[in-house]
Amino acid sequence: MFKRNAFLFGYNKKRRFIARELEKEPLNLILVVDDEPSYNQAKEDGFREVVFMDLTDDELLEKLKINENDYLVCVMTDHYMNVFLTLSLHSIFPKAIILALSDSPHTTQKLKMAGASRIIDLYQVSANRIHNMLHKPVTTKLIERLFSPEEEFSFKEIEIPENSPIDEVMVDDFDFSLHNVILIGMIDKRLSNQFIFVTSGLENRFDVGDTLVCIGYNEDLERFKEFIQPM
Predict the structure, then answer these.
(1) Superfamily (CATH) of domain 4-146
(2) Strands 181-188 and 194-197, bridge-based pairing
(3) Phi first, then psi: what are they for 94, rounded to 5°?
(4) Cα-trace Rg, the chain
(5) Which of 60, 152, 179, 198 is deepest in the core (most CB within 10 A)?
(6) Where are the domains of the chain?
(7) DSSP the chain
(8) Domain 153-228 indexed as CATH 3.20.20.30
């Protein structure tokens, strides 16, 4: 049976969950990264097809042999690079389906202009909205399953209490995928209760009194809450 390809551009601990979900689908998953640490991390995590290349080089992008029915998922942590890559891919492969991740309305507008077929806007994310955006079956079932209204999937705010196992742990050092939840952002008391998206690029630390905003299946969120707030 012929399988379509899914090219995931960008990889790190925060993007691992997306790659794992794509692995479950009837697709050939290829990770494409532009830095050695990401390449080594992907290999260490067990992904077989990982390409290390300069994503600003159009000639190298053309060599990926992307077909018009393939899925191109742009999740680069640098939103400027994400927009640039989306523009390049749309120019080279105009018929391919491009799904891009955005962390602000401004970036969303840029991605639309760059040619993204679908945009997951973390600034306005909600279960129904994303499900409606991805109503066509040609889109990757990754996000469709995650945000389908048929699943018990929701948001949860979890405050970090004293003696929590994540107190004083750096955000980048904690693997949320092990708990099957996704961290959207946090209210950092050290920064005057400001809400911070995980894509902001800031180096943050979990502290007592901080509030985490996570999404996931209800059962996983409850188990994660019990882990964060041990009796």
Answers:
(1) NAD(P)-binding Rossmann-like Domain (3.40.50.720)
(2) antiparallel
(3) -65, -20
(4) 18
(5) 198
(6) 4-146, 153-228
(7) ---EEEEEE--SGGGHHHHHHHHTSSEEEEEEESSHHHHHHHHHTT-S-EEE--TT-HHHHHTT---TT-EEEE--SSHHHHHHHHHHHHHH-TTSEEEEEESSHHHHHHHHHHT-SEEEETTS--HHHHHHHT-STTS-HHHHHHT-TTS-EEEEEEE--TT-TTTT-BGGG--GGGGTEEEEEEEEGGGTTEEEEGGG----B--TT-EEEEEEEHHHHHHHHHHHS--
(8) no
Mean pLDDT for the chain overall: 80
pLDDT of 122-143, one tens digit each? 655 443 343 344 443 433 444 4
Q: What is the dihedral of CA 177, 180, 181, 183, to 10 degrees?
A: 0
Report pLDDT digits (tens) over 10-56. Answer: 998 878 888 888 888 888 999 999 999 999 999 999 999 999 999 99
Contact 29, 8 (CB under 8 A): yes
Per-residue tokens: 91 = 């120019």
Name the residue type at position 18: I
